[in-house]
Amino acid sequence: MMKLSGETLRDPTAETTSVKRARTSPPKSLEGLCVGLFGIGKTRTPEFLDQVEKRLAERGLITKRFAKPTNAKTCPPEIMEQVVRECDVVLVGLSD
Amino acid sequence: MLPATGFVIFAKRDCPTCTLIEPVLRKLCAADPATCFISQDDPQFPEGVSAVLDDRELEQSFRHNIEFVPTLIRLENGREVDRTYGWDVREWRRITGLADLGNGLPEFQPGCGSLSVAPGAAENLQVRYGETGLKSRKIELGEWDDPIEACFERGWSDGLPVVPPTDVRIVRMLAGTKRKPDEIIGRIPPFLPECTVEKVAISAVMAGCKPEYMPLVLAVVETALVPLFSLHGILATTSFGGPIVIVNGPIAKKLGMNWGFNVLGQGNRANNTIGRALQLLVRNFGGGRPGEVDRAALGSPGKITFCFAEDETDPSWEPYHVSLGFRRDQSTVTLFQGHGVETFNDDKSRTPEQLAHSFGLGLRTIGHPRLQKAQAVIVLSPEHYAIFRDGGWGRKQITEALHKYSTRPGRDIVAGTDGIPLGIDPSRADEMVPKFAPDGLLIVRAGGPAGLFSGVLPGWGSKPAEVGPVTREVHE
Hints:
The complex is a heterodimer of chains A (96) and B (476).
Chain A: E1 8-10, E2 34-39, H1 45-58, E3 62-67, H2 77-86, E4 89-93
Parallel strand pairs in A: 2-3, 2-4
Chain B: E1 6-11, H1 16-20, H2 22-31, E2 36-39, E3 52-54, H3 59-63, E4 68-69, E5 71-76, E6 79-85, E7 87-88, H4 89-96, E8 108-109, E9 112-113, H5 121-129, E10 138-140, H6 147-153, H7 167-174, E11 184-187, E12 194-196, H8 197-207, H9 214-224, H10 231-236, E13 242-248, H11 250-254, H12 269-286, E14 307-309, H13 320-323, E15 332-338, E16 342-345, H14 352-363, E17 374-380, H15 382-390, H16 395-406, E18 408-409, E19 432-433, E20 436-445, E21 453-458, E22 470-473
Parallel strand pairs in B: 1-2, 2-3, 13-14, 17-20
Antiparallel strand pairs in B: 1-5, 4-9, 5-6, 7-8, 11-12, 13-15, 15-22, 16-21, 17-21, 18-19
Helix pairs in contact in B: 5-7, 7-8, 8-9, 8-12, 9-12, 14-16
């Protein structure tokens, strides 16, 4: 029988391994927390987040809006850092 | 066993010069019994000589960098101090000190190529006996593993078989570029690891590239990493497209690229593997996989590969790269964020004005008739171009006319008309609204000689300041 292989290949990947971190437990209540509403730049994202903001405001919750400049590119790190600094939980609006 | 001091002769029976000088070899053996004969193909050659080293594995030939046989080497204290190759009676007599060596033979006869430099041998021998310098992790397959299936199982495939990236193939691929394997060429989205020339070569191997494609593959990758191109965005989008690679200049012909029949289709190795090398790099090295960071709802066959060359054979046509200020003799690569191929069919127009008007009408619908600020590559077929050319039109007139005839009255595309919410604000009803962004039409001439149709490759971007095509020179 012909021997198929025993060959040695080289790894085409970046040879990295993701660090698995435990998820932060969701807060039991949003009372007193700042809820970040993050727009990713899609056409109808503001419309969606407006509705969410309105509903949260009706419940007396604090919200803060964030957005990345364009849906075509990744979020600049400084905006990500601002989100982390200024709010406790964040909702990302992906809606088309 | 090689003598520390003495003579070593590399030869093969299949070489007429080696067989011609067989008497010489026997004489050398008699004069210096320590003389070592190394036979590349037959350990019984030369006949009548006992000290023949079997080098059918070509290890000694590789280690002594033998390019031709016969090669005569003189060693002193383990070091090479003299060498000649082929049969040159004066040289052989000088090196051996045997004044009557080769009496009766012609004075000169060239040798043959060493088996160690036969096509394909050099890289194999380098991997087996030398240093490859490769840094990527080794993956040892089981004895009965099928390498192609092993690549599938590891998730390294775009759905089609890939060429298994063995050391020999990678070393051969790296020989296609002067750039060092450890040179970092940029960070590949989406996870942005630093990518070396070696990793690009691995991707090129897997895609099926030839080594001579490497300068172009490297240029494609570097162009894709220019921020304006937004490689992460085109990967992550829910929309259809991916990178479309357009090649201009002499390198297209040199690599045998297709700009003619079926230019956007199957059949040409360079076209199809160069585009695939970029996609496999993003998938395997960058980590961009469908359903993960690649969020495309439908995708497009062009996301496996989409690469072609412009037809620059008609001197009346200004090639795309020349329109950007490059010279005709410069090679360039252009990357465009594009979807699949839409068709424009018109076999009735006979004048430039008719055809441009008709084409403009066709272009109004790409994406959606009410969308604007569009970008698109127009693949202008030779027969359609001939109508423009014969009417005295060139790139500039065609581009202007297509903008003109794809511009439409705002009232036709107002949101809410016919009960369709999509459209422009009603306040713009009296405006004339262009379909395309000002630089949004990129015209490339390509295709088979017959057929009154052209191709339209709609673009992904509708924000030209943020996303647009990028062109870079290819350095060989």
